Amino acid sequence: MFHPLPGLAIALAGAGALATAAAAQAPEREASVIVYGDDPCPAARDEDEIVVCARRPEDERYRIPAPLRRGTELRERSWSSQAMQLEDAQRDGRPNSCSVVGSFGQTGCTQQMLRNWTAERRDRRRDR
């Protein structure tokens, strides 16, 4: 009867020897550099070093990196509109909230109706 287990053990031992040989031949130092415009890519210090250069346009040299920049939707909103949005989010549970939650929640239903009417009217004017 043939057992594939001894053959598998020999193959795995051979693969491990290949992996250690490849690791022994790997360069000792790697460098990744971003260069801007026509700047030259820095040369390797010795033959065991690999230098990888990514080239970017010159106008991005002093910019904030793209993942850290804010989106345009945040820049277009004023502080007053952000404050109004936060106030609306916290309105439930406060007096004059038109809600069954909190004290005097039912007293704000007329104010909510007027706020909605004003927002719809503003949207219609903006669409024209």
Summarize the structure.
By secondary structure, the chain is α+β, with helices and mostly antiparallel strands. It contains 4 helices and 2 strands, in the order H-E-E-H-H-H. The chain has helices at 4-25, 72-75, 79-89, 109-127, and strands at 29-36, 49-56.
Description of the molecule:
The protein is α+β, with helices and mostly antiparallel strands and 128 residues long. Among the domains are: 27-63, no CATH class; 77-127, no CATH class. It has four helices and two strands. It has helices at 4-25, 72-75, 79-89, 109-127; strands spanning 29-36, 49-56. Strands 1-2 form a two-stranded parallel ribbon. The longest helix is centred in the N-terminal third of the chain and has 22 residues, at 4-25.
Overall shape: it is elongated
Order of helices and strands: HEEHHH
Radius of gyration: 33 Å
For the largest sheet, list the strands in their spatial order: 1-2
The residue-averaged pLDDT reads 76
E-strand count: 2
Q: Assign the structural class, choosing from mainly alpha, mainly beta, alpha/beta, alpha+beta, or little secondary structure.
A: alpha+beta
Largest sheet: 2 strands, parallel
Helix count? 4
Give the N-to-C terminal Cα separation: 86 Å
Q: Strand percentage, roughly? A: 5-15%
The parts where pLDDT drops under 50 for at least 5 residues are none
